[in-house]
Amino acid sequence: MNPTELKARTKAFALRIIKLLRTIPKNDDAGRVIAKQIVRSGTSVAANYRASCRARSHAEFIAKIGTVEEEADETALWLELLVESGIVSERKLSALLTEANELTAIMAYSRKTAARK
Fold first, then answer.
1. pTM to 2 decimals?
2. What residue numbers bound the domain in which 43 lies?
């Protein structure tokens, strides 16, 4: 997958996270807290990936990709918590959770590959 495709994929992921926020019950205290966290980490995946594409050095690229990996993994955690707490059904989040885990794996592989060079 090339950088242009990954930019589009991470942006689409961020948009799906934003849309998910609208479905979380407003009267659920835990849901509101998780919603704030998930919108930060989920949209950060796209923002930091774009920043990594503009890295001024190889070291900066590795650091930025590491941040993207961390944010994608954090988003997966928040999604898991939404499901396991019963706030949102697993059926509703399974595709989004799969995408978070795939993005985490892609970024981890990219970071490890770049670090070996």
1. 0.94
2. 3-116
DSSP character string of the chain: --HHHHHHHHHHHHHHHHHHHTTS-TT-HHHHHHHHHHHHHHHHHHHHHHHHHT-SSHHHHHHHHHHHHHHHHHHHHHHHHHHHTTSS-HHHHHHHHHHHHHHHHHHHHHHHHHHH-
Helix crossing, 58-84 with 29-53: angle to 10°? 160
Predicted pLDDT at 117: 81
What's the structural domain count of the chain?
Answer: 1
CATH number for position 63: 1.20.1440.60
